TrEMBL record, chains A, B, C:
Keywords assigned: Metal-binding, Zinc
Positions of the DUF2172 domain: 68-159
Cofactor dependency: Zn(2+)
Binding site for Zn(2+): H188, D194, H324
Annotated DUF4910 domain residues: 18-355
CC cofactor note: Binds 1 zinc ion per subunit.
Protein name: DUF4910 domain-containing protein
Source species: Waterburya agarophytonicola KI4
Length: 435, 435, 435
């Protein structure tokens, strides 16, 4: 497959990505529960997503699928009956995975369960307590400071019951059973860059690819962070051997520069490909070595799997102040940045799809290109010279050991020029794919 | 063999090289024809060159030996009968491989077949049309602009007939059947740096080496560019396995700095050797990676051969304005530069000849050098200290894995000092060559 | 074993090291003789040193144990009977290994046997003549210039007779038969930094380690330079296969920065360990490639052994003007520098002892650290975050291929933090040592 990147409309796609984010923003998601289901149902309007339910109590490697958590309502009322904190106003107000409670208490006692950010008095923090029973509210520091001595009514109407962990998966079949994995986390409530930008990118990437003839098969995962990837790996262990390239998608809507975090291997084809695209297509970027801290690459790159999975984001998690606060909102992500991110992911996939190694049918000396119309006789434009040089490079490295990406990197010529030269040589029977 | 570089007279040899260039300059050469034969006969006055004739129509890999081309005369006359372009004045005036023609035509029609360089109005360009039937004249832009409206008589008395491709070869037998290849192209008409400087260097290099006891056998090729190397490789395929080191010789007479283009392998012994010599013996030089564009290294380094063949030139082809014009003449090449180039080639060969790996006969601990007179007891001059250090380095790396060149590079000591230390240790029975 | 480096008192140990140096300083040592025996007996007051005697004439590889040399007295008297040079004043005054002589001679004749340093008129040089019969005196240049025309009586009462080469060895048995070698030379007379600082460091290092439970066995050698290491290697050839790491100890008492000279291999674990410690624990240091010139690493790294033995010194031999002169005295070495050097050697050993590779018992995905109390739930101090990150790194690289030192280098986290994380994971049954 060759993606016609010139006809890809980054602006239009960026707008659609932003629209989807807007639609998903109000939903309160967590690692389990109806928020996740609602989210996945909306995505099914775009792609034929299959939804999987893993029962509470299922053992997945060292972990156990926890009880399912759902929220009906949650607030704190003062003695006048006024709701001073209200989950209906913002899904971040409730400590994620709060146990149910209905109780009256003093301000002092209440404060033990309140979380704010003193340095950012207008922002609500995002907090969770998945694996230890607790309850709490998150609020702006302004709100916190406005609370007076009073008797407060705390009301949290949540359920923590045996149920399921829910995730979505779309398998797009290509010519080969070898797979490209694209995965994002879906467990955060109203957070736009961290969570929704990745969901949106993977959705539209899948939508775009599903109409094409593809070399690889593609697996798109929409999973809760950590426990979701662990569950998927535990339930699909045998399939992981098919994964040839993978990317964890997150944080692709802010205005920061691209950051690529290499796979644990460090020199996998996906690493070389992303680095190549960033070097050639964007002005500013940063390449980071793998570390076992971050998104779900932690699991895909655990030593027992060590899959060739990297992560391409814009500003990395935790490195922008809005991270895990209410300021990671619809103002923080930008349609044009979303569209540009999707375009870069497509460039990467375009290279993966075309990055064959070839064998020359005339390995001894150069074939006579002139008689085949593949070489100029008198002078020629710069463009023609570049094509000729690309042709010579492809032939010279068509020894079954060098991929087109290697050839592009070694020659300093654009991957597309190299790819076009290879295709012309295949058509002229001077090259064949190294099976 | 150890070349006594101190007794090599670069100046005298440079003068002789220049004289040979002067003698060959007027001859109109091409990829076939009597110009090549005449050139090779002159070289036979210096070295016992064998001349080979490959018939027209012979298939050599993907190519076919073309018809032989010879020129008797060629000119353009104006209506007054005056020759306004005359092949007898300069061999570059005729488009190389022009078909025969005798015809009257207007200036407009004639101009379709004229080639000049507007930016360099005093220079005649060099053009060829080997594989598509055409005729033409090359002239200075001044000449072109002086042509008035008139009826011109075009007269090209060439022959394009079944014949031969001619090349010269001199095989100098050494102690080993392993070969060093030195090759130059002989297909250019009156061009001094591009063509004649290489021919001259290879000739005098062969002449110099033929009186020595050599470790390697040497193969000196004088071949037409591209088709000549392809023909040689096709006809000598089985022999290529003997080629251990090789250099394509060209452009060694101008005043520019040395440029070494690595073999496709990039880390062959020839690559390390040339880089070592340039690092240690010249002030300015440049090392370039292999690319499949250039001289006959394109064929020797095609993937089916991948021979350890690099190319050592001064200014690379195409990077000086005089390239492929009449300005690449007897003024452009300098006797002292030719002599210096030959000296550098000899230094390279001196290292190749001496670059053995050794095995220490006392690998455990140092041997007692003092009792053998190989180590000073009290102090000593700087020179003596250097010799002692060289002795220790050679012994320490005499494990059959490190060559003397490796030892020189790792120790930072001159190759000659390292080589002399190794020879002294061999004489003292402390070292033997690793067979 | 984990060395409690925080409780190690560098200052106190430095003082003790200096005291030992002071005690050994007056003794006239050589490559054989009673000075060496006296020195080793003093060391036996600190560590259970075994003393070995190798008879004169014993063949050790390419060398032969020489005759034993002992001095009773040596002086030069002028015609008034005044001793103008007196061995009793300084052991350096006598050319080491001088043959006996008693003779009267003119100043001119005497001067042929006198050595001084014109540039350093107050210093006595140190000279030897082990393997060629000679006699001589070393003196300050001032002394030399003060000598008047006179008849001098030269009296050297030395013996050169069949005897022994003497060396000391202490083998400290650890859990494994694999060994760490620590070796110093003991053949120099009154020289503090070159010789005594190394002797003192190895002695107190051995004394410190002997009370600990050790992973490795340790071999401490106190041997004459060159002939001593050659003798030890010849007599212990079979044992050398057990040596996994080694350091040649010398020049550790001056005020210069640390210099590490890599083993011949260049990438041995000892090389990585020393470089790691210098990078992390000292401000200024220099790493030098191996060269076959220096101390006894010359023998341990000869090609037939090629042991992983480097050398950690302060200012390298020959690079300070006091080297091999009477100015390398008790003023030149400093107690605090000696103590700091010992602390650095202990840090190196601490890493060697703890530098295991591990296998994760949960290689697929991360184990759930939270339920084991190995991971924080809410925020945490910087220290806690560092510990969590160290835990994740250790788990991620627990594939049996990465040592803790690799993990420390790759993560940028302190070795001690990494080691503590590994120990906690072993206790939690999440990790086991890769046997």
């Amino acid at each position: 497959m060759t993606i016609s990147l010139k006809t890809f409309n980054a602006k239009e796609n960026g707008s659609r990505m932003y629209q989807l984010i807007s639609q998903l923003y109000p939903i309160c998601r967590s690692i389990t529960g109806d928020g996740v289901r609602k989210t996945l149902h909306i995505l099914q309007e775009h792609i034929p997503l299959e939804i999987f339910e893993v029962p509470t109590g299922t053992q997945v490697f060292d972990w156990t699928i926890p009880q399912e958590w759902n929220v009906r309502d949650a607030y704190v009322k003062n003695s006048q009956g006024k709701k001073v904190i209200d989950f209906q106003h913002h899904s971040l107000h409730l400590l994620n995975y709060s146990i149910p409670i209905q109780q009256k208490m003093s301000l002092a006692k209440l404060k033990e369960h309140l979380f704010s950010i003193p340095d950012r008095p207008e922002w609500i923090p995002y907090r969770t307590s998945y694996y230890s029973d607790n309850w709490g509210f998150c609020l702006t520091h302004k709100q916190l400071e406005a609370l007076e001595e009073d008797e407060y009514e705390v009301y949290i109407d949540t359920s923590l019951e045996p149920g399921h962990l829910t995730y979505g998966e779309y398998y797009l079949s290509g010519a080969s059973e070898e797979e490209v994995l694209l995965t994002c986390h879906i467990c955060h409530p109203s957070l736009c860059n961290d969570n929704l930008s990745g969901i949106s990118l993977v959705t539209f990437l899948a939508e775009y690819l599903k109409s094409l003839d593809l070399r690889y098969s593609y697996r798109f995962l929409f999973i809760p962070g950590t426990i979701g990837s662990i569950a998927w790996l535990a339930l699909n262990e045998a399939r992981t051997a098919k994964i040839k390239h993978g990317l964890v998608v997150a944080g692709v809507g802010d205005t920061g520069k691209f950051n690529y975090k290499k796979s644990r291997r460090g020199d996998a084809q996906i690493d070389k490909t992303v680095i190549h695209v960033l070097q050639n297509s964007v002005k500013q970027y940063q390449i980071n070595d793998f570390s076992p801290y971050g998104y779900d690459e932690r699991q895909f790159c655990s030593p027992g799997f060590n899959l060739p999975v990297g992560s391409l984001t814009r500003t990395p998690f935790g490195q922008y102040p809005q991270y895990h606060t209410s300021a990671d909102n619809l103002d923080f992500v930008k349609p044009d940045k979303l569209g540009e991110s999707l375009a870069i992911y497509l460039e990467i996939i375009d290279i993966l799809e075309n990055n064959y190694t070839y064998i020359s049918t005339n390995p001894q000396c150069e074939p006579q290109l002139g008689k085949r119309g593949l070489y100029g006789t008198f002078g020629g434009t710069q463009d023609k010279k570049t094509k000729e040089l690309a042709t010579l490079w492809v032939l010279n490295l068509a020894d079954g050991k060098h991929s087109l990406l290697d050839t592009s990197d070694r020659s300093g010529l654009d991957f597309t020029v190299i790819r076009d030269a290879a295709n012309a040589l295949v058509n002229g029977n001077l090259l064949k794919i190294n099976q």
